[in-house]
User: Fold these one by one.
Assistant:
Number 1:
Amino acid sequence: MKFKKQLSLFCGILFITFNVGCKISRNENSLQKIYGADTDYFMGLKSVQQKNTKAAMNHFDKAISNGTKYVSRRSFEQKIKLGNIQQQIEEAKKYLKIYNDDDALLFACRIFFENQEYALVINSTNSTDISTCPNELAKMRLLSMHEKQDSRLSKTTSQWFTDRKISQEHIDFYNEFLKDKLDATQIELIEPVKADKSQLMKLGEYNASIYNALLSCLIKFRIFCSIKDYSSASSFLDTIDEYCIKQNVIPLTKYIVADMGKTFFSTSRQNFQNANYFLDLSNSALAENAEIKFYSLIYAGRIFEKAGTYISKTEQAFTDALNCAPTAEDYDMALWFLLNSKLTDSTEKCIDYLEKYCSTWHNPYYFADFLDNLSLLLFTSAKWKSFSKIYKIIDGYADNASTSKFAYLTGQLIDKGFLQGTEQEKQEAFLKAFELNAGTDVYYRLLAAKELNLSIYEIEKNIFFPATATVAENDYEAEILLQGYADFGFEEFIYPEWSYFYAQNPNAFSIDTISKLSDFLHSCGNAQNNNYYKSLQMISKTANLDNAPLNKKVFELSYPKNFSKEIAAAAKEFEVEEYDILGLIRTESFFNPIVESNKGAQGLTQLMKPTFDECVKKLKLENPDITDPLTNIRVGTYYYSSLVKRLDNSDILALFAYNAGATKVRRWLQTSRIGLGMYKDLPSNLFLETIPIAETRNYGRKVIQSAAIYAWLYYDKNPCDIITEMM
């Protein structure tokens, strides 16, 4: 009853505090009335900040006894941290007995490990499955076993490095404790001995003599594969085949099979031989393990496909993998490979297979890139009729954004005369594209709205308040915890806690709760922290779930005007629109000023260093810092404006060039004009669909969508007019 009463207060008030500049606008008495017994947890945190340990302990004890589920648990954790070494250890033992799950074990072992109680870490994790537990927990167990010289260390290390995906914890452990110790890069291949009296060395002795050396090879092999250094990994293939597959010294796992498959796929030209190797493995005694059978078939199919001449063998391997998939995720993976293999086989067969299987897939988002590539193939092969067929096939099965895309393109192709259809069919296709709620992913919805000549009122009514939106069941006690962090001013707790709950259940929080949490974090953002990025991540992840109920505030938080003064000044100086630069920065960096891409692009506008240096010279800047928001925005805006001038004053072509380079854009434009037979009047929206690089296609959609939404939200412009202006 206590919780229901508290929940009704939350439902009626819903995040009563609006914080300005991260300052609390409600006094503690007001918050006490709302949060009741949970108030003690937040007051305990304040006492910790004030270094008043006694008061903090008192507050936490009360919250442990009387608080809601997550508040009580977090209070216990905070109390443990405040004790002396002996108190921490004893309290952590009690905590572990009460909660007794992976999270509790991880927390308790952190306490034990930090206090060098290695035996407690080992004893607490003796029944832990090293192949499924949190990697941090596995790493602490291994380090503790190393400290205590535990005889099980080698076997445990073997399981951790062979029976799960390589993580950062694996790499850190390897670099810190194993790299210099693993001297053997190869094992000399020797024939197995028979365990009979005529042999000088028994089989058991033989296995023991090579186990550690083989483990050394396996660990190096998997580390190389994790960083995609398949050339180095390939030197271990013969050893792994001999001792893992033929002699089974260390048991074969699906991860070893997958890494072998990636290595063969990337480094060897003997495709037929290699594919049959995995096919044989899928039929061996080892394939009694369903996971080994599945991954053997996946890589048999991939390598047959790479060869390019074994269409039926490719199809059979992927189909067999589909039929023996151990999990829903594995099923989707096999189906994804099967469908993609048909892209290079036959368009008609590909669509037939899509029709046959789309109702069976589990995660529709997994297939969005396949559908995008299928669309490109249809454009390049002039299969116009297929667009109408596909959008009707996938309606209800694909993610809404993909269905919206095929519906819009159907209407557009009818309008341009590529596809025969009535005016009614065209309007129905545009209407379908517009009405499908895809969260804040509204690119094709806005294009359709433009074709339907909808008013701002009609657009906002459908997009801000989608009729198809449904309310998921949320975790209200988790909402109480995070709302409390905001109301009591603890910004540093919000994003980590949200990440924790979101990983377990993306629907843990309502869009309304996330809006208010995101708004609070945004108010705490500045050029020196990454709260802008955190705010945007939280709202975007939630808002882009299909059927999330949205409103204008959600869009404003999803498309914030961060660094507005710097952007306004740069846009004015270089005569471009502010909303174009806002859209570019949101797409490039999500407003994280210190982000660096894997290709080396840096800062808010994601400039490569050579491009930055070249622009800096032209602007005559002294001692420029590429990560300084003011400098990065000014240089990025200058670079974008120069591309607009170079590419016939075209915003859309400049954006493509910003991502892929002007030379490529000119070449793609020429190819598309020839392919579509539209030498003078090639619409930019159709040109975008023919760009051969998926990254650039997606980039173009995101920036155009973002610019249109920014102009709509903050500059009192019709988003359809902005799309016309840009395209």
Number 2:
Amino acid sequence: MAGAAIPAVGRTSVSSVWVPHTITEVLDRALERTPDAVAIIGSSGQLSYAELEDSANAHAMALAARGVRTGDRVAACLPNDLDIVVLFHAVMRLGAVWVGVNRALAVPEKHALITDCGPRVLLGDETITEELGTHIPSCSDLIDVVNVLDVGWRASVTEAHGSPRAPLPDPRAPAGIAYTSGTTGVPKGVVHSQANLLLPGAATVASRGYGPALRKGDCLPLTILNMMALTTLLVAQAGGTCVLSERRYARGIAEWIEREAITVWNGVPAMLHDLADDDAVSPESLGSLAEVWSGGSDCPNVVRGAFERKFSQRVYATYGLTEAPSLVAIEPLGEPHAPNSSGRPLPHLKLDILTDDGTRLGPGQLGEICVDAADEGPWAGLYRPMLGYWAGDVIVSDARSGLPLRTGDLGIVDGNGNLCVRDRKKLVIVRGGANVYPAEVERVLMAYPGVCGCVVLGLPHDRLGQCVVAVVQVMLTQELDADNLIAFCRERLAQYKVPEKIRIVDALPRNAMGKAQRDRLAGLFN
């Protein structure tokens, strides 16, 4: 688990923005300028920057008293509230490795991640304590399971003394393990350093001009490491306020945004759809928002259009991935949405479109999206790729562990520098020797009235190798016929791209980030 040699520690000035080298330092600028400003708001209360600093130190010392040392994994299965942010900062101060375990996972899925990362401590509440004690007793026998709401733990935090700020952790050593979504297979643990996790926030704050007035609202789970990078680590560098919620339903989200006067909100397409579709949600309830972010290629045009018409709020397309980590590209402020665009790269990055043999392709040519460090300007050379994949106390490098980082996504970059994501490389369906890109077929299906979600996939076929099928989600008020959908596709697609079978469902199975779980859909065609 030893990291690279420790570089000079301190903060780097980039485009008039201070970029901390370690997460321990991420609060420093706000502490120097506005220590009493509100850093976090959650359902249980709020913390100023000074209170967050003190609480993170106390929790770090309490964890150290339980034996947590540099390089140890600390797993957390907690809701979006003050505790998860405080404990994340505490773990970073010890140079330990943070592992988020999503609360929405089934017990066997949680067990698999916990077993894989082998944490010294698991931080949770009564729910996780009961699940592991009742259903998986071996976990609680081997791992120190801490109920962070327990009076004993709270007392140990209150009694903690000392400061974990010296020596500072190695910014290039392992700091977090982010498990991939597992929508098409077994999740893999992506390992990132503190330096990796800080840059997306620093670059976003600089490029979008955020300052203390930022009130960024997030209701997607902070157990997802990407979200942690886009909440406390981004907002603290602006000196703004991070507003957290567990709400996932339209009316609750709207009430929360209005009450907290949120200025920037990150929502998945399903949330945008529900807000636009619910007549009980008034357009005025989202009036405080200056920016709404959503996944670019995943956000259907029909959803984007309905949301923008109702709320008069621009939806900014984004592109990110676990291995980056987090945000890679976002649409610039003040420009209209380019069709199918997922934005332009953050200033610390550059994007290339490459062939399998590494040949760079020109504007408009389809190939694999590859992420590299910016090679000019003040951000040049700051970006580093992920450290590798976690494999039982060993970090395994592969092609993605170097630069350029091969994303496994196919796309183009147009003449204006906009990234257009076409599909996952491994999802391409080879039907009778011809490539079918699921996203292309999905865009056609999403244009049919009443369709609010769909997944196109390939199934094994004796003669063709693979055949094209689709699962379509319809609005509750609509009744659709599969034959009509197939006929609609025949008018708009080459014959080899047209789904041979379509199954219509009320809801697609989705993970916590709103991604459809493809591995659960093939069984519908048995």
Number 3:
Amino acid sequence: MGFRITTVVALIGVVCACGWGPAAAAAANTDLPFHRGVNLTGWLQVGSAREIQFTEFTKQDFLNIKSLGCDVIRLPINLHFMTDGAPNYTIDPLFFYFLDQIVDWCEELQIHLILDNHTFDVDASTDVNLDQVLVPVWSQMAEHCRDRSTYLYYEILNEPHGITDSRWAQIQQKAITAIRAVDRTHTIVVTGAGWGSYNNLKYVPVYREGNVIYSFHFYDPFMFTHQGASWTDPSMEPLAGVPFPYGAGPMPACPDQLKGTWIDNSLAAYPRDGTVSRVKELIDIAVAFRDQRQAPVFCGEFGVYRRNSDNDQRVYWYEVVRKHLEENGIPWTIWDYQGGFGLFNQGSNELFEHDLNIPMVEALGLTAPKQTPFVLTPDTTGFDLYTDFVAPGLSNSGYTTQGTVDYYWNLDPAEGTYCIYCAGLARYNAIGFNFRPDKDLSLLVANGSALDLWVRGDTPGAKIELRFLDTKTDDPADHPWRMGTAIDASVAPWDGQWHRVQIPLSDFKDRGAWDNAWFNPKGAFDWSAVDRFEIVSEYHDFVGMQFWFDEIRVTDPTGVR
């Protein structure tokens, strides 16, 4: 370990003298300047730049991640969706606006940042003509980022699959050539076909441009790491109770609906595959490639889906994999930070000071802050839901089956830079704001606080529902009850102009609940456990209609902003 640290420091010294960054210098041998980190998932994995909820993570989250002992973040991005599509695939400037702020945070905090092109469909094979997208996209990315520090890395594509290794090598080469035409500094992360498997590393060419890192992912034994997963084919949702290692508990029988499939065969092979020695043997394939190729290798993903796995066994698997990677000098980023594979307790609010899975953190060799129980207390002051951005502590819980929702409409907002725009929504579609953690609004209701927003529409006769939904408890008689109010022409004339609307929370009416069936109102809504707020096309569809919303808040009785 001492030699490894000395090597990196010496390389950084060379950087200062010649202007070539630490990542580029380190890539000349098998060492890398980063060691351990996380995948920050979901954030930029959306359908367009206009759907990004930028405040879902903040600089404080980056500080928290660094405080754990991480020095690298892999950032999955639906990169192709950040463009206007064929033929030019021009990247939306709004995406670059967000990306620049993220890079600023990482440079300030000295966190390495891997821009992972995660435009990835588990159900579709990689297009054999994907170079037609990768070349223009990475040309623009490299042009935009070329002058940033070398804490930044380019990962060409996540988990190519359903394509031959030879064809993928050609496509990857074209992307590398496009990047190097404008940026010869930043390190490029490459991978093999076959879902980025360690088995396919040997088929990845020696890219003569240099300054590359070879990446692989690790999820073995798959029967353990993916039990309960819905995205496999066939779905592994029925599978539960697979132990790790084999023998740590009874093996479950193959579920009836999975008999005769490859999952049935894999379960039969589990006595061999579900062992610590087998896990190490498979990781050693990547180690051997690294030593033979004399090139840096990085494990970009490894993890266990927590839904159906035993937590103690899950923690043990992470410890086994992490230690073997580190003993062999392979840096890593777990999949993921928050989410189904994440560092937080299942079913929690995923709050850094309250909900970390401490045994998991320790198994990864990280350092967690002291955890305290979370106590929901009543809000005593107003708060923002949207002011140019969805407010921190909220996440998108909307649902749209047709039409457009744009959270960053910059043409004539009521205040600030942006407003929310929607048009053409189907009936019962919603713009949603999920409170994380839930909100206790009971005192605000009692003291006369109001929902306060600016609204604008262009269609006389339109009607919109605004509503709060409470939490659903374990009580079978409980449901996500609603308290709502309607906006129509009597509240905000649909004349194409902005109108400020203030509605006391106490004026909201009991609307009942939908919970796979309709439940009539019965006065059961709980203002002390509010889960989310929604703007809904409840009464009719919005086809041919446009609406704008801005400066959405809960304000105190004075209504002062």
Number 4:
Amino acid sequence: MEEQLCEYGFAGYGDFRQPAFSLRDGKGFPIPGPFTITPELRTEKPPLPGLPSARFAESERAETLLLHMQEAHSGLRITLRYTPLPDYDAVLRSVCFENLGNEPLILYRAMSCSLDLPYDGQQLLYLHGSWARERHLCRSSINPGLFSFGSTRGISSHQFNPFLALLTPHTGEHSGEAWGAALIYSGNFAAEAERNHDDNLRLNLGIHPETFQWTLAPGERFDTPEAVLVYSPEGINGLSDRYHRFIRERILPPRFREAERPVLFNNWEATYFDFREEQLKDLADTAADLGIELFVLDDGWFGERNSDTTSLGDWAVNRRKLPGGLAGLGSHIRNRGMEFGLWVEPEMISRESELFRRRPEWCLHIPGRRPPEGRNQLVLDLTRQEVRKHLIETFTSILEAAPVTYVKWDMNRYLASVASPALPPERQEEVYHRYVLGLYEVMEAITSAHPEVLFEGCSGGGGRLDMGVLYYMPQYWTSDNTDALSRLKIQYGTSILYPPIVMGAHVSAVPNHQVGRSTPLSTRGNAALSGNLGYELDISSLSVEECEEIRRQIDFYKKHRQLLQFGRFLRLLSPFEGVETAWMWVDGEQREALIIWFSAYREANLPRRRLRLAGLDPQRLYTVQDSGRRYRGDRYRGDELMNRGLLLPEVEQDAGSVRLLLQAE
């Protein structure tokens, strides 16, 4: 039997591929249809209760097609929602399941989008990795059978990102067709690509069915997270352009869409847990002298937090370390002309804490069993209303009591022993998704109460970097790995979907604390200013020459911050294909461009390389400048730079880099 192309496939009528949805009635029988389909056109996008989704101003039209699929016997109604966004070559997809009958329905599988199309040699592009090696690029053929990836870790994870793309075989960075699908969601997800015997191809993207089940009582509804489908006829970088603009304009909190991100200093790798107030003030004085704009106090400021074994949940200031409290330290930092930032980890609780001794039932656990710890900590049960209320009140009070304008929100372990005694037995499979809904409720309350605070997400580095978190927190700590060469792959892969303005990137000490490698300070700076520039090392022990180099880096970044944070980002050479990496930014009028080229290894007597640029005005003349004055104002036409390329200077050491600035005449 030939399996037909479907809009939202389901089992039961001769379709044996992975279904987009699966339901049973209260007696356990499947609901196979048939469905009566009724279209409806609205001038606005219906809200997704409790879920982040693309933002629209009240005055904006967001025409949405609704396809209502009604099943007569059970009372099930499924509504497929489509919101086209021509400015981004995108379509928003989501699904609503409603029980209009008199008996409960059980939902086992609910994909946000499903796409059937003929197989014509397409390839898959997706992002994979692990802690300290996030979002590496993978491009693969699609063989017959089912290929799937995703997360069952409770968060979108270090291992995979909720995104995949289809490419034609000859698609490159700047030519060829690309289709992307990304999920606005921060929990367990599944991405599936199935090529069947008829050479039809099905893509599914949504909540992972292995850890999901939802009971729909009469009158209840369930909404899937929103998926963002994007098409590009201009290659992978064209796909990135569209997602970058979409994330900046439709996902990030409105206040931070056009707001420049500050240059920050984070004390973590300078002090770890071992610090005192006077030491922090000395670091703050040095940071201010270097031109840093934001001082961030990381882990260790609360409870008895002298190691990672204790005190999560006890969010009272450790007065032995900080006699003046957060307000006193914050006042000193503000007096030095900087903003004050703070690290927190709201979702976690230590077994060794006052909160756990008072409320042991507040963690996710199976009754009668000891819950497993990760990084010496347990996970708070955000399905409980009283836990969410406690977190909202606690962190709202902290932000009201001190002059905090930046918060780093961390989450350092995956979910395990995922159960909540607060829910009945038949709803235990709902805990994973209810946790995410609870997280969004807490984030919404805290960020809405303090819209002036810049929140940066973090999950052991980049373990929960997704559009769901970016909806509340407009930047993210890209990875705990701060090694400059490691960051080239991490930031290159991340940029496939996410714009540089959301990527936290720090200059750290050498030998690097994660990989033990030593790289030049100039290269560490060039890698870090490719995101939101920060410093995370003991700046009090730097030499005079190192301090001068950092001042130059910060001055350059501030001068070109608009271009770096809001310019069009273009990838030129991939670190996954050789020892060189290159990327560039071009402003909206194509008058200014910045190129950074990295070379991991130096070889003797190599011929000079030419680097083909992109995104320039072909008719304009550009002057090339670099810090070494090697170009002396040389002038090139845009079409020459994009076709013949720019002759690169030689690097003089391993892990070298070159930064070039183009100005149109």
